Amino acid sequence: MKQLDYYVLDVFTDQKYEGNQLAVVNIDEELEPEQYYRIAREFGYSETSFAHYSTKDEIFKVRSFTPAGFEVGGAGHNLLGAVCLALLNKWDFFKIRDEASWVEMKDIKVPLKITEQNGLPYVSMKQRPAIFNGTVPTELIAKATGLRLEDFSLNGWDNQIVETETSHLMVPVSNTGALQKAIPDKTLLKQVSKQYGFEGYYLFTLNDTSDPVLAASRFFNPGIGIDEDPAAGSAAGPLAGYLQGLGYIQKEHDYKILQGTYVNRPSTIQVNVADDGIWVSGSSIIVMKGKLFI
């Protein structure tokens, strides 16, 4: 019987028992596909990551799976937690070249910036520049989220499918009251996302730009088995691109997004739009460690 070390981290937070829960399994070689799926189901978190350093390719590699059996990519909490784990455990896996580091996910090299805040690693991951892929009829979104049409009146903005590594639907709502009362219909959400070619729904509302927290958000992605995620870096990056494209936020400026409040797992995601991509940043903290038997 083989044993693997695993860790549970709270991601996009510097406080234990907040943020988005992530299991990270330290592997020394690739597992069989069914083993990834079964282990992810066993943990039951929105995603489980499997990480190892490839001596052949000289890079830290991460793969992530949902309990529903989907492999996911993108620079989100699944990648941030794995990188933070390596740093917290002082695994010297990151090759420094011209002051930049990289990690590999699904054969894509993701640039990193590594600093420290509050005694924890603070990691920035660069997503690709935002691509805008159309809108969805508001009537469909209202029906699938249990909201009224007037709940989507925010600055006259339309919803928009936005892609960096992954396509998600940015859904502006009028205020935090509307955001809180959304009740997702998983079946309808899955039908609409499949019809229009995107994954998750990022409902958000805004604070004043002078507020330390720019936006409050909720994320639903039942198509890959995620009912509501406390932190979704893969959607926060597209939101930054969406807002910058509207001229609401500036390039090369840090903004914070609050997510997870309504599932009692508050998470803070920092975003920054650059000319060549979107930086998504945060910290993680280890809360559990154990042995996995396979």
UniProtKB/TrEMBL annotation:
InterPro entries: Phenazine_PhzF-like. GO terms for molecular function: isomerase activity. SUPFAM superfamilies: Diaminopimelate epimerase-like (SSF54506). The active site is at E47. One of its GO terms (cellular component) is cytoplasm. It holds the Pfam family PhzC-PhzF. This is PhzF family phenazine biosynthesis protein. It comes from Pedobacter psychrodurus.
